[in-house]
Amino acid sequence: MSTRTDELAGGLLRHIHEQIAASDLTYEEFGALKQWLIDVGEAGEWPLFLDVFVESAVEQNAFKGREGSKGTILGPYHLEGAPVLSAPFELPRREDEQGERIVMTGRVVDASGTPLPGAVLDAWQADAEGLYSGFDARLPEGILRGKVIADDEGRFEIRTILPAPYTIPTEGPTGRLCKAAGWSPWRPAHIHVIVTAEGHEELVTQLFFDQGEHLDDDVAGAVKDELVVKPEVGPYAPERSFSYDFTLATVHASTPDTAGAVA
Ligand SMILES: [Fe+2]
Fold it and tell me: Of 176, 180, 215, 236, which one's alpha carbon is 20 to 30 angstroms from that of 90?
């Protein structure tokens, strides 16, 4: 028995019961709900649904008050094992890769501004059609995924292309929910990054682009003002570039937590 499970599952059920009464739910609607829940499972879309509609709230709660750069959701498209890139630190691309070339630079530092040499940036993104390698057969494996190690001053460079906005899959039950509810299925263009350095908390984040579409109606609710960058023509001209410093929180001795209590 776990009182934590009782608190979480019991609380969720109470919210559902209250919503049933508030919305005067009919048996017909209950039947449609049951079938939809079954459909989500059969389509293998529970990871998608949870990452899109629930993870953002979990992330905001888990890291409220944490020092350093803002994080946001991991999402469903990260893959382990991306290669470590050497100069010129270009995310793997096809010979005819479409999309505007851009350069991302910056430093990885701790909360006092001290550089973190050897910090690892694991970056992945959609292509100029909004597709992810490893999840869409139209892209060769490994495209637009790679790791970069920060240098002795904590500096890094990543050469890539401007990703496109994309929709979550619209044909399955999660997409049907968006359509039925009148919700936008779009995510704004973004580059995913996980930044790690010894003795510091892992930072899972995304960078979005100034004046990009769908910053205000991200289906995943993952945009934060601090994560919007503005590529400009500068030191890497003619390519546009932007600089973003990742500040990592120091790992503090943790108090006993509730991990595993739900199991
Ligand atoms: Fe993404």
Answer: 215
